[in-house]
Amino acid sequence: MPRSPSADVVTASANQRAAGGRSGIGRLVPRLPILGDLRLGRRLGWVIPVLIVLVAAIVGYNARAIAQQRGSALVVYTAARQRALVERYTKDVLVVVDGFKADPKESGEAMRQPVNVLLDGGSVRAPQGDGSRVEIPPARDWRVRRKLEQDRRLIDALIRTGDRLLEGGRDDPRYDDDVTRLRVLSAQLSSVSNDAVQEITQQTEASLSRLVRIEIALGLLSALAALGLGLLLRRAGAEQAAQFRSLVNNSSDLITVLAPDGTIAYQSPSVQRVLGRRAADLAGTALGDLVHPEDQHDVSMSLTTLAEAAPGATANFGCRLQHKDGSWRHVESICTNLADDPRVNGLVLNIRDVTEQAALRKSIGDLLHNLARRSQGLVDRQLELIDELERKEADPDRLDELFRMDHLATRMRRNVENLIVLSGVDQRRRWSASVPLRDVVEAAVAEVEDYSRVQVAGVHDLALAGQAASDVAHLLAELVENATSFSSPTTRVDVSGGPAGNGYVLEIEDHGIGMSDDELDEANRRLAEPLAADVAVSRMMGFHVVGRLAARHGIRVQLRQRWFGGVTALVLLPAALLGSTGEHPAMAPPVPAGVKVSPEPLLLADTTKSGWQPRARLPLRRHAGPAPNRGGDTDAQPD
Amino acid sequence: MPSTRARRRWAWVLALVLAALALAVPFTVARRQEPTPSGRSVDVRLRDFEVRQDAAVVPAGTVSFRILNQGPTSHELIVVRTDRAPDKLPLQRDGLTVNEEAPGIELLDEVEGLDIDDRQTLVLDLAAGNYVLYCNLEGHYLGGMHAAFTVR
What is the pLDDT of residue B73? Predict the structure, then answer.
């Protein structure tokens, strides 16, 4: 099972402190080349000599093999054979002249044949003593040709003399002279044949020698090429390493490698600019020592999850890191799991300093908040005024108009509150006592302009934690508003509820045209990961607000496509926020067995027990029942 | 400190020089230096199968034989002092080559392994007397490769 880097952060840090800073740096040094240096140079250090040795071995072997072939090839055997043929011919002629039987012509032809072949452009395969054959190339060199031509003339002269002896016999008066001439020609022929073969051998040797020299030259050139290539590669590697070091050193981002034990195995020097600390000082220290205490849990969770994920997985998280001067820097990190890479063996964090962006975001949030707060005050006063007018008005038509004004002002207040939510300032009105969930649902419906299309049914008698009531009502109002806005005015929007394994689910169903899969994915992504306030947020403000409100209380919101058209928004309220009516939510089971379910659609929320003041009143429903208690009890005041 | 470009240029120059050396060294052939002729020069031409010199009689002293083999086969030239006729030199047992150790034969010097068009100079300090120049390869002497030479 892989070890979690974050799990050992504290202990590793303690061990590191116990071991002393130098030992940590000492451990780090061998790891530094992981990112800074290519190992090319070290590899070339042994590749090049091996290459040179190989090339030298090849050249040496070829030279030796060729040298073994030359010299001994031609002279010994071919010259000896020619001499033997000449002597045999001479002897055969004399034997025949003396009356014995022999065939000198065979020897004569054997002498003449190879010479003729070589002079006519053919080659001769001369057998060697070990059974192999050496090919004698055609006579193209002028020296060889002159000697072979002389050889042929002498052979012809020898055969003519032999023929004369064979014809004349011993009785011929020129017999003695011809015998002498035969012997002299035989000797000359042996000498000239030997000379010709030597010339051929020398030519062959010269040719082979040229080959050897060319091979040696090629081998040397190959070695030089290999050397040059090695040097170029080494230089390229060094330049690449230098370039990489320069990029790392001068980058505004931090590159950090976390070892499996959670300590910093490598830290890029740019940490000096961001955190005012020396990279060497951070080697071996735990990352957790630098993280803000409020962020440590999230960072630890992110790193633990990533360490247990597949190799190559990435994760993003933001946190605050402590500068050497004690201040906190906001950073965003992209973390990659490279634990399986032997050159890294850890998690690689690419950390960017976003302190200025965070400050800018905060100032924008503050600006939004201030503007929204002013508007909120005005809207609240406007609502109070409308409420007072409603109380005094008896004319039903005018009262209806007042109710519509009341409703528009309520929507304005929700928009203002959206801005406050997006500003990031948590300024909620909280109630210490729990609130009936149906009241919250009813209040949310009351904030929607087309509330008359909304049908609330099947919501259990549960209590919602007071501190979440306002945000849940706001959240539900946004979802119901969205449902009524994107469905036909003639269709109904249903709000219902039901127990879930780990909480309670509220469903808001519309019967509109629905959303495409891409739109649905995008909306769910916004709901799950609400962004900071920017232009994109303004386009889908409702989902961002819902996402933020949900994130505050651990509520999960998800949109689903309905089979018969339209969209269902599921709101999962965690058990921690729920309880039976009148009980403290945290002490009650999530959904008690046999809870009472409203048999009819809810028409009015009863907030008298909780004292909770709904975000909106239900103006039109006053006609159907008692007005909601907006005065509130003393224990229902915001915390 | 030299710039990277300058060092790169020098590296290329060095590589080219090494490459040139690698190509040139194996093809380098040492040339044999011939001795400078001195004294009286005699041009001797060898061919199959005769010996010709441009002077048959020379004064005593240093004689430089400038030998040229016109081929077509290889020859040698041997200088002996003898009072015998050039074609009456004693032969070895094989009957094909001259016995240079026979009485009446004084071997002075020789040049071997003359290939076609080879030139060599043989310098001898010759006293007055009769000399024979010949080739003693098998059958060459008997084939007529000999010449008389007189020093006075």
Answer: 92
Is any Cβ of chain A less than 8 angstroms from the Cβ of B116?
Answer: yes
Confidence of residue A31 (pLDDT cuts 50, 70, 90): very low
What is the rounded distance in angstroms from the CA atom of residue A219 to the CA atom of residue A223?
A: 6
B140 vs chain A: nearest CA distance in angstroms? 6
> Are B66 and B108 part of one and the same domain?
yes
Tell me whether A196 touches chain B (CB under 8 Å).
Answer: yes
Same domain, yes or no: B78 and B11:
no
Whether the CB of B13 is below 8 Å from some CB of chain A: the reply is no
**Element holding A560 (H helix, E strand):** strand A556-561
Q: Is the residue at B5 inside a domain?
A: yes
pLDDT of residue A531: 64
Q: How far is A304 from chain B (nearest CA, A)?
A: 47
CB within 8 Å of chain B, chain A residues 164-193: 180, 183-192
β-pair type (A314-322, A346-353): unpaired
Query: Does B72 lie in the same domain as B2?
Result: no
Residue B91 forms contact with A (CB below 8 Å): no
* Pair B20, B44 in one domain: no
- Calpha distance A64→A216 (Å, rounded): 12
Determine whether the interchain pair B22/A198 forms a contact, defined as Cβ–Cβ distance below 8 Å.
no
Q: How far A166 CA lies from chain B's nearest CA (Å)?
A: 22
pLDDT above 70 coverage of chain B, percent: 86
**Mean pLDDT for the stretch of residues A349-358:** 89
Chain B residues with CB under 8 Å of A203 CB are none
How buried is residue A235: exposed, middle or buried, by Cβ count under 10 Å (0-12/13-18/19+)? middle
Do B18 and B70 fall within a single domain?
Answer: no
Domain that holds residue B22: 1-30
> Do residues B13 and B57 share a domain?
no
DSSP string spanning A511-547? -S----HHHHHHHHHHHHSPPPSSHHHHHTHHHHHHH
d(CA A571, CA A507): 6
Predicted local distance difference test score (pLDDT) of residue A583 = 46
Taking contacts as CB-CB distances below 8 angstroms, the residues of chain B near A179 are: none
The whole-angstrom distance between A159's CA and the closest CA on chain B is 16
Nearest chain A Cα distance for residue B26, angstroms = 5
Classify residue B96: in a domain, yes or no: yes
Of all residues in chain B, the one with the smallest CA distance to A229 is: B15
Q: Is the pLDDT score of A326 beyond 60?
A: yes
Residue B60 lies in a domain: yes
What's CA A98's distance to the chain center, in Å? 101
| DSSP string covering A358-418 | HHHHHHHHHHHHHHHHHHHHHHHHHHHHHHHHHHH---HHHHHHHHHHHHHHHHHHHHHHH
CB contact under 8 A, B71 and A146: yes
Report the DSSP beta bridge partners of residue B64.
B41, B123
ipTM: 0.76
* Residue B55 and residue B18 in one domain: no
Lowest-confidence region among A272-281, A283-292, A577-586, B101-110 = A577-586
Residue from the list A143, A190, A217 with its beta carbon closest to the beta carbon of B116: A143
Q: Where are the alpha helices (DSSP H) in A453-508?
A: 466-485
Kindly state the average pLDDT of the residues A305-310.
88
| pTM score | 0.46
Q: What is the Cα A560 distance to its own chain's centre?
A: 33
Secondary structure of residue A18 in the 3-state scheme: helix
Q: Can you tell me which residue has the tokens 């016109």?
A: B70
Whether residues B61 and B83 fall in one domain: yes
Beta partners for B78?
B110, B134
**Would you state the structure tokens that stand for residue B128, as one six-digit string?**
């007055």
In a domain, B35, yes or no: no
Q: Say which residues have a Cβ less than 8 Å from residue A130's Cβ, sequence separation at least 6.
A: none
Inter-chain touch A195–B73, beta carbons under 8 Å? yes
A133-136 vs A328-338, strand pairing mode: unpaired
